[in-house]
Structures are given as structure tokens and as C-alpha cells.
Amino acid sequence: MLFGTFFKIGLFTFGGGYAMIALLENEFITQKHWLGRDEFLDMAAIAESTPGPVAINSATYLGYKLAGVPGAAVATVAVSLPSFGIIYAISLFFDQFTSLTVVAHAFQGIQVCVIYLIFLAGVRMLKALERTPLNVGILLVVMACMIAFSLLAVKFSSIAFILLSGMVGVAVWGTGRNQKGGR
Predict the structure, then answer these.
(1) Which phi-psi region, left, alpha or beta, contains residue 16 (left: φ > 0; alpha: ψ -120 to 50)?
(2) Is 51 left (phi over 0), alpha (psi -120 to 50) or beta?
(3) 55 vs 21: CA distance, rounded Å
(4) What are the pLDDT digits (tens) for 116-162?
């Protein structure tokens, strides 16, 4: 069951980790009930902020949670196999593959779907976000910065946003802990 679920996710996910979030949420929360919404949001945050693809990080996390180290290995291999097979097959016929106009048009259609999946995942995660002053503040600052940087054509890494937001969260937690007497 673990292998089949992650193989399916690896096979039908186009567009990378952000596009995958909606599919992961449907599989893990709605259909399989392997995670609660809060734990899913935590897993998504960890998977996106640690090195490596979101799919592999998520598979490793959930596989470990469900079946320990063997589960992590099975889930990670299962989510990787479809991509490996497809890329290997494409590499065998790369020149012929890229010259097909039907392939180019198919990928243009897939791009539209990927944009929708990314947007949908963002909306769902935003709806599930706990509305604390800290969360809302970080969200508004990051959104304002991203819009301003896009309009001004300033390059700023998404990773930097993640790290800075994490540091703010730790600083607020540390300040609250110090005010409560070090608990």
C-alpha cells in the first residue's frame, strides 16, 4: 500500500514540489487518513525547507512515520522510480522526443494545470493556517516583499524567506519563553 501510493504520486505529479502539495494533501489526509491537517502542514514546511525534492522528503518522512526505516526506504524508492524511468526513456530518444510538436503542446497544457495545482495548494494551506498575529504578520511581510521584489525585478531567494521566517518564529518563541521564566 505504501509503495503503491508513493509510486502513483511520483507517476502523476508534474511541476515539482509545489504542484505536488495538493495531491499529497488529498492522499495523506482525505483518502488514507495517514496525517492530520496540522501534521501535514508541518510535514510540508519541513519537506520544503530541507535539502532535496519535496516528494522525496515527504515520502521519507511519511514512510518512516508509518513503518520506520524500511517504510522510509520503500516510500522514497517508490516516489523516485517513475521519474527515473521517464527520464531514462526520454534520454534514449531525446532528439526525436524534443522535435515532436505534439510533445511541446502537451507540456504547454501541463504547465497550465501545474499553475492551478500550485495555486490550489497555496489557498488550502492559507485556509489551514492558524490566524495568530505572528503568522499573519509573517505572511503579510513575505507577500509584500515578494510583490515588491517582483515589480522591481529584484532577485531574492525563496530559501531566504523560509530561513528568515523560521528565525523570526524562533526569536518570538525564545522571547515568550524568557518572559515565562525559562520554561
Answers:
(1) left
(2) beta
(3) 9
(4) 888 888 888 888 888 888 888 888 998 899 899 989 998 888 888 88
DSSP 8-state assignment for residue 26: I
The C-alpha cell at 147 is 510583490
Residue reference for cell 534514449: 92
pTM of the model: 0.57
Integer Cα distance of 76 and 72 in angstroms: 6
Provide DSSP, 31-99.
IS--S-HHHHHHHHHHHHHSSS-HHHHHHHHHHHHHHHHHHHHHHHHHHHHHHHHHHHHHHHTHHHHHT
